[in-house]
């Protein structure tokens, strides 16, 4: 357990070194000092002449606004309306013509007076595209595995506060569920190629798919594992998603759920460039459920009472009085539910990102700073973010390069105490409440709940986090083709939580309806530090037509976390919040915990290519983890892949002009998942407390069966893909078919109660995922109109194959969503009864087998599926997917002169949403009753109504049946953005190289069957107690100096 | 340049050497104790025995919910598994059924582990080890009493099973389970002291009182009577003079208490106030009394309210009643803990008005036992002890067993009348000369009104086989005069209780049947 003390010292040394270098670096990177001296000398030697010309496109149209520059000098101009330009240049200068959407063209000036240029539409051929892969890069043409990549530029096109949101709908095989989320804590979940391992749907019912963490991909930023949310989208140069086992196996035991590689932006040598990107947005809740009208609601209540044999609750006079009163005197006659109107407001979001980068051949640096302030759409929600990153590269000798990166981030998130309870009360348990009286009192209604009170005066939960990662990397080219890379990083997170609960009371006139008597605070401190060491040895060589590449690597991760919390209550008043001021008695409490884990890995890769035509790759990783014991500590994860560039074959020559590139590739490999609770193999005793004579007594007892046989989940995946480019690279496409099988999934297998212990995780069971992914991209130019488009489409089939003779696991109950994880079904499928409409007569109802209790006309006819004359859980069946089978997205980009219009579409289908609780209860309890029920519930006068007869305090018709599952397929216009780029000639006077402004709107239009419920299609099943999805209306600026 | 290269090499070396750590993959948790280092000292024995108590320590909600699933109480919250049970909508998947199975076997496991390992402790203090063994055996018997009462035949597990073994256990006939309970309790009574220095620990009296209860449940009346008599003859226990105060803080650990779960606010608290008190008192009314219970209390003159001679006035239903009614139940017009008047009747527009919302009591009654004004300001943080065994129950067990044996002698009348004549109850004594049948009704009635909401009624209506008569149908609450002067009775809207003959035993949880092919299901399930 002893740790070498010099580790920490060493790291601080590195940091100092890094900061020192900053000063040097900024000094050196100023072009006035060094870079352009030669140019200036040269310019003095050779006299300048005026050169002019016309710039046209391929079809001969004149191009205006094309930037014309003398390479290496600040001299530059723009073409005018007729495509003409004039510039001073010397003999031997290189003229650079650049224009958005076109290939940049360089022409050496030989003294002629006219230089006419024809520019061609930019179409990066596959040949030039470099893809990030594990511990390295590869040309896209020679790639033999399934990797999708997106540029940082593409990612930040849509103004978002997190990358998860930015990625939605962008790449095939990547399913992102965006369940809203309060500022700073987006409730998004990323799954690559389907869910491998069952996860507890307990959280599903309460708050989105929150337990999905074990299915989340491994995220590697510049070689170091990092949490996804801790990356500034503006710092991303490129993002790759590694999907098949051949690309992920090099990450071994953590790679089964796919890997996301992020490379951050680095400086280029040359002039210092400064960029500023900022936006201001207004956030607005997208979907606000609409309540039933007051008169309809009161009548519904009367019918609901009568239907269970009670007297109607309201007389005609009372209904009249209430309907009139709700308009004239809402303080006396509040509406049953009005919280969506009362509590949600638009909220601003501001984002500033500034970067400075530049340097010379020896030292380059990029500094970026970001500030974001996102207010929430309910009171007291806010997220502030400050972030600074410095990436520095040093060339120490011609063979040695060192880079030091440091990223610091401070985030401060504020939300009301128990924010989910507030959203829960939008629909549940807060009925007939006056939100706030003119005298400032908060009403309580019948149940005493008031979400406005909780939001405004209930207390504040503040979470501030400091996140720092320092990363130093050295590369030494020992001999030509052989390089050694060493990288060391320390990642450190400190989270400070303070959850303060106020004293408060809800009252109507002089009656206190509910109160919280004890203000209290819970403070938490969580610290995680993680050291990563990567050592890589690369060798590459070409022997004739044979290209060979080797990689040998060693990596280790050492993670340690500590947490501590403390509680006190009964403060002098709600403004006194320091923990030391709470009552110093037995109510104070505290606790904490420590944990650590380590990972040690050896890995290798071998690439072989013959004539750039036949490609082969093999990967292997030997991973050791502290989470397992004995022989299970180490495991081996191999992969193989091969590719055939058919278009390189001679017989293809004729087709070469139309199909420029065609590659067939296939891969197979094995990866692991070590997401098992720490120390699971360790038989331990739990501390419990009891009370004798009013004094605490301790006890120790074993609660869980230890499992020393525990080992990794193993995923085997095969992939076949086709990459191609057509019509002069104007159209490119990728198709993949994959099939993966996860074995030994970590399950908390049920054990008999008679064992008397919890079972603990065991390796058991098999889950399959298979499916297709399609991507296609095109860029075209029709005169002045440029059109770029990419579309992607994914199909994922998920199926539980084996649960080791156990299960099915059925979660939920009759009034909440019920899920099944069982053999033959997708993980967490909806489960319940099938129905056949409503009974139309009491006689018909009485003849059919009874469900719950004797049915009457207007009740749901629940089917006796197995025909055994009774309706019981044996009649339940599969009712649909809770995770989408099809996901798709598209991005279309139109450019016309200086205007650019981006449209991003995104959607999913074959997915259900189980409406429950208030939405399903139809006023039978005291929940929000949506307007969709108006005149659409069964009464003898409305026999064709869709919904069952209301029955007060009786949920017989709300059981988990197919009627309660809505088709949650959707297509939405995720984002529309209109950009205007200013003419460079205008900008010259204000020292700007580029400037553009834009307006955009997210979640603008959605096509979904949930629209008539006024629900978001990405809503979670269950309580609807989460932060609503928002739309953003944004104004933004991008400047480059 | 050379300097730079040297610098880089040094840096590289530093990185390599500072990061090497031989035991990177060996992590030992420092926030838990390994089983391997345990069972060394007498302290370990005490710590392990203490842990077995935690399985007996029901939450307040669980404690009350037993009677909340009977005819005298109602659990109406729509999601609760108890409300499904009450309405006959449950099966072998019901979470209440499986959690009671699991929790009792978890306690049995802890007890078995203790008994299998405690002799590893090297000590000369055999008195301590014997006492702890006695406590743990009683606790294990306590869990088996629960299991046998709920499920009938259950696997009798007395060793530490492996997973494999647990998948092939058989159900032991319930008579053998009762044999085991009887034997264990007799043995442990001999190991245990009359009094323990720490309150809440199991004593000889607790072992015998539990045996009396167990044998009564088993229908072994002679053994029940003998065990109860043994408790009476210990001369340790006596009735507390005030029924009203019996469940208050002032009366904690009084001489009537044989075994309780000790609580202390802040440190080891329960939430009984918040689940029982009316809404106006920041309570949840989760478990509420029914008309059946309230109507069971006699008039002060000892006559049932159904007796025309009783003097019962439906318009003034709570006057001149057995005082235990208003000691046990908040009835309309009562004074609440905060000093206000309980006014739940329709039209009152009070916070507690019945029908105004489903989170007030739907019967217009609330439980008063254990609801103490001291807890008003922290309803979820109560320190009141919950009594598991008290002397009054032993007396009633004695009486019932003797009646069933048809040995109705003066000691039987004395046992019942002692309870009726508790100073602040002061009900007329039962006159001698009753038949066995009359006495059976009398003792059953006395158990109902004396022990309501102490977790016994649920089991009583099962073992007496009267559940099919008392459970089904609509559940009613308070009767009141409406605006027109007509008598109205509150009823729970949409609530219809069902009792199926199979319900006398709960189903063996489905999970158990799935995992263990040797287990069979109870009849009808």
Describe this structure in words.
The complex is a heterodimer of chains A (about 1050) and B (about 525). By secondary structure, chain A is mainly beta. The two termini of chain A are about 55 Å apart. Chain B is globular, with a radius of gyration of 27 Å. Chain B has helices at about 1-20, 40-55, 60-70, 80-85, 95-115, 125-150, 165, 175-190, 205-220, 220-235, 270-275, 290-295, 325-330, 390-405, 410-420, 435-450, 455-465, 465-470, 510-515, and strands spanning about 35, 75, 255-260, 285-290, 330, 365, 385-390, 475-480, 485-490. In chain B, the strands form four sheets. In chain B, strands 2-4 form a two-stranded antiparallel sheet. Chain B has a two-stranded antiparallel sheet with strand order 3-7. In chain B, strands 5-6 form a two-stranded antiparallel sheet. In chain B, about 40% of the residues lie in helices and about 5% in strands. The longest helix of chain B has 26 residues, at about 125-150. Chain B is mainly alpha-helical. The interface between A and B is large, with 102 and 103 residues.
């Amino acid at each position: 357990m002893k740790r070498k003390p010099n580790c920490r010292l060493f790291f601080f040394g590195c940091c100092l070194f890094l900061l020192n270098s900053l000063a040097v670096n900024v000094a050196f990177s100023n072009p006035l000092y060094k870079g352009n001296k030669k140019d200036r000398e040269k310019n003095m030697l050779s006299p300048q002449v005026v050169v002019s010309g016309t710039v046209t496109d391929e079809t001969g149209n004149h191009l205006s606004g094309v930037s014309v520059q003398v390479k290496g000098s600040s001299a530059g101009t723009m073409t005018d309306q007729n495509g003409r330009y004039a510039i001073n240049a010397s003999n031997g200068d290189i003229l650079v013509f650049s224009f958005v959407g076109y290939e940049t063209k360089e022409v050496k000036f030989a003294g002629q007076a006219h230089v006419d240029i024809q520019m061609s539409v930019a179409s990066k051929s596959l040949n030039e595209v470099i893809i990030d892969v594990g511990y390295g890069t590869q040309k896209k043409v020679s790639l033999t595995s399934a990797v999708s990549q997106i540029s940082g530029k593409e990612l930040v096109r849509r103004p978002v506060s997190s990358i998860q949101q930015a990625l939605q709908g962008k790449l095939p095989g990547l399913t992102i569920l965006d369940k809203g989320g309060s500022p700073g804590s987006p409730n998004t979940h990323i799954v690559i190629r389907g869910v491998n391992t069952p996860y507890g749907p307990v959280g599903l019912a309460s708050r989105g798919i929150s337990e999905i963490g074990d299915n989340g991909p491994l995220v590697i930023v510049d070689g170091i594992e990092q949490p996804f949310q801790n990356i500034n989208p503006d710092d991303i140069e490129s993002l790759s998603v590694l999907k098949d086992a051949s690309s992920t196996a090099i990450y071994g035991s953590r790679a089964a759920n796919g890997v996301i590689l992020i490379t951050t932006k680095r400086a280029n040598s040359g002039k210092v460039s400064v960029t500023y990107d900022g936006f201001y947005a207004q956030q607005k809740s997208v979907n606000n459920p609409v309540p039933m009208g007051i008169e309809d609601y009161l009548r519904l209540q009367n019918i609901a009472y009568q239907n269970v044999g009670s007297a109607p609750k309201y007389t005609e006079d009372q209904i009249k009085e209430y309907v009139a009163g709700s308009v004239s005197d809402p303080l006396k006659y509040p509406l049953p539910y009005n919280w969506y109107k009362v509590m949600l407001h638009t909220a601003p979001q501001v984002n500033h990102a500034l970067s400075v980068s530049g340097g010379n051949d020896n030292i380059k640096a990029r500094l970026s700073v970001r500030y974001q302030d996102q207010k929430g759409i309910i009171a007291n929600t806010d997220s502030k973010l400050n972030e600074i990153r410095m990436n520095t590269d040093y060339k120490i000798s011609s063979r040695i390069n060192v880079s030091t990166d440091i990223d610091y981030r401070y985030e401060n998130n504020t939300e009301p105490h128990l924010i989910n309870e507030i959203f829960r009360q939008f629909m549940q348990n807060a009925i007939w409440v006056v939100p706030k009286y003119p005298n400032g009192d908060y009403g309580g209604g019948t149940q005493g709940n008031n979400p406005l009170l909780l939001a405004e005066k209930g207390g504040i939960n503040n979470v501030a986090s400091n996140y720092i990662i320092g990363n130093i990397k050295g590369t030494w080219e020992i001999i030509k083709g052989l390089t050694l890379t060493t990288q060391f990083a320390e990642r450190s997170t400190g989270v400070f939580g303070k959850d303060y609960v106020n004293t408060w009371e809800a009252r109507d006139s002089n009656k206190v309806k509910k109160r919280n008597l004890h203000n209290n605070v819970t403070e938490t401190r969580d610290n995680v530090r993680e050291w990563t060491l990567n050592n890589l040895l690369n060798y590459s060589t070409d022997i004739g037509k044979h290209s060979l590449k080797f990689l040998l690597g060693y990596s280790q991760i050492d993670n340690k976390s500590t947490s501590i919390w403390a509680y006190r209550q009964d403060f002098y008043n709600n403004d006194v919040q320091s923990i030391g001021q709470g009552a110093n008695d037995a109510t104070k409490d505290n606790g904490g915990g420590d944990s650590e884990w380590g990972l040690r890995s050896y890995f290798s890769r071998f690439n072989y290519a013959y004539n750039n035509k036949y490609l082969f790759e093999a990967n292997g990783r030997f991973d050791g983890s502290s989470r397992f014991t004995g022989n299970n500590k180490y495991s081996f994860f191999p992969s193989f892949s091969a590719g055939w560039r058919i278009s390189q074959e001679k017989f293809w020559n004729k087709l070469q002009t139309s199909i420029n590139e065609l590659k067939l590739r296939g891969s197979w490999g094995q990866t692991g998942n070590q997401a098992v609770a720490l120390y699971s193999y360790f038989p331990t005793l739990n501390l419990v407390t009891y009370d004798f004579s009013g004094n605490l007594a301790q006890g120790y007892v074993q609660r869980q069966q230890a499992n020393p046989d525990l080992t990794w989940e193993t995923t085997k995946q095969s992939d076949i893909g086709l990459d191609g480019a057509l019509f002069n690279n104007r159209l490119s496409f990728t198709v993949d078919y994959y099939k993966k099988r996860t074995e030994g999934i970590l399950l908390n297998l049920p054990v008999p109660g008679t064992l008397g212990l919890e079972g603990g995780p065991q390796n058991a069971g098999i889950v399959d995922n298979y499916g297709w992914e399609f991507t296609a991209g095109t860029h075209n130019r029709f005169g002045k109109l440029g059109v770029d488009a990419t579309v992607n489409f994914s199909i994922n089939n998920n199926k539980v194959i084996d649960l080791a003779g156990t299960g099915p696991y059925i979660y939920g109950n009759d009034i909440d969503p019920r899920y099944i994880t069982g053999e033959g079904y997708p993980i967490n499928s909806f489960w319940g009864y099938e129905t056949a409409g409503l009974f139309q007569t009491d006689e018909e109802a009485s003849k059919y087998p009874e469900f719950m209790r004797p049915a009457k006309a207007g009740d749901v006819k629940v089917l006796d599926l197995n025909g055994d004359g009774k309706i019981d859980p044996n009649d339940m069946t599969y009712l649909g997917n809770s995770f989408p089978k099809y996901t798709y997205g598209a991005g279309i980009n139109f450019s016309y002169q200086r205007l650019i219009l981006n449209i991003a579409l995104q959607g999913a289908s074959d997915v259900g949403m189980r409406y429950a609780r208030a939405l399903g209860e139809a006023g039978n309890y005291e929940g929000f009753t949506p307007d969709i029920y108006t005149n659409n519930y069964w009464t003898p006068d409305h026999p064709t109504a869709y919904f069952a007869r209301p029955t007060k305090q009786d949920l017989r018709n709300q059981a988990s049946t197919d009627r309660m599952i809505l088709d949650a397929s959707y297509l939405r216009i995720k984002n529309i953005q209109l950009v205007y780029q200013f003419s460079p000639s205008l900008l010259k006077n204000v020292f700007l190289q580029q400037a553009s402004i834009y307006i955009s709107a997210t979640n603008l239009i959605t096509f979904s069957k949930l629209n008539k419920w006024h629900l978001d299609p990405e809503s979670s099943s269950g309580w609807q107690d989460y932060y609503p999805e928002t739309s953003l209306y944004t104004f933004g600026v991008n400047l480059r100096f | 340049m050379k300097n730079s290269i040297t610098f880089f090499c040094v840096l590289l070396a530093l990185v390599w050497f500072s990061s090497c750590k031989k035991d990177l993959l060996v992590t030992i948790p420092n926030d838990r104790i390994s089983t391997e280092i345990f069972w060394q000292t007498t302290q370990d024995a005490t710590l392990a025995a203490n842990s077995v108590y935690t399985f007996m320590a029901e939450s307040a909600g669980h404690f009350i919910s037993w009677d909340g699933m009977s005819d005298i109480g109602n659990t109406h919250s729509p999601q609760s598994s108890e409300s499904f049970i009450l309405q006959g909508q449950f099966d072998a998947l019901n979470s209440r059924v499986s959690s009671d199975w699991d929790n009792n076997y978890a306690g049995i496991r802890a007890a078995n582990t203790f008994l299998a390992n405690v002799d590893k402790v090297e000590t000369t203090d055999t008195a301590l080890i014997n006492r702890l063994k006695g406590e743990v055996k009683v606790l294990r018997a306590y869990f088996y009493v629960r299991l046998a009462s709920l499920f009938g035949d259950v696997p009798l597990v007395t060793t530490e099973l492996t997973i494999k073994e647990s998948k092939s256990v058989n159900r032991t006939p319930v008579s053998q389970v009762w044999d085991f309970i009887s034997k264990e309790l007799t043995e442990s009574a001999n190991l245990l002291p009359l009094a323990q220095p720490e309150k809440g620990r199991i004593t000889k009296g607790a072992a015998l009182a539990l045996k009396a209860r167990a044998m009564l449940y088993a229908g072994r009346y002679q053994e029940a009577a003998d065990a109860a008599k043994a408790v009476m003859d210990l001369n340790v226990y006596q009735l507390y003079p005030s029924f009203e105060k019996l469940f208050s803080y002032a009366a904690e650990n009084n001489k009537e208490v044989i075994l309780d779960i000790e609580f202390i606010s802040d440190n080891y608290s329960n939430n009984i106030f918040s689940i029982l008190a009316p809404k106006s008192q920041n309570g949840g009314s989760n478990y509420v009394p029914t008309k059946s219970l309230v109507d069971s209390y006699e008039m002060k003159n000892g006559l049932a309210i159904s007796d025309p001679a009783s003097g019962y006035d439906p318009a003034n239903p709570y006057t001149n009643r057995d005082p235990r009614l208003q000691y046990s139940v908040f009835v309309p017009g009562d004074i609440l803990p905060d000093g206000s008047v309980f006014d739940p009747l329709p039209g009152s527009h009070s916070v507690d008005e019945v029908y105004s919302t489903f989170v007030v009591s739907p019967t217009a009654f609330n439980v008063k036992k254990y609801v103490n004004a001291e807890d008003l300001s922290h309803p979820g943080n109560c320190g009141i002890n919950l009594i598991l065994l008290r002397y009054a129950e032993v007396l009633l067990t004695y009486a019932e067993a003797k009646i069933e044996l048809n040995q109705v002698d003066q000691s039987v009348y004395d046992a019942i009348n002692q309870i009726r004549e508790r100073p602040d109850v002061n009900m007329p004594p039962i006159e001698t000369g009753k038949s066995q049948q009359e006495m059976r009704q009398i003792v059953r009635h006395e158990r109902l009104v004396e022990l309501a909401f102490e977790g016994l009624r649920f089991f009583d209506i099962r073992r007496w086989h009267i559940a099919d008569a008392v459970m089904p149908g609509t559940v009613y609450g308070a009767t009141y005069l409406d605006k027109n002067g007509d008598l109205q009775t509150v009823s729970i809207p949409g609530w219809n209780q069902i009792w199926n003959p199979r319900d006398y035993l709960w189903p063996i949880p489905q999970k158990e049947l799935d995992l263990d092919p040797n287990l069979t299901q109870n009849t009808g399930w």
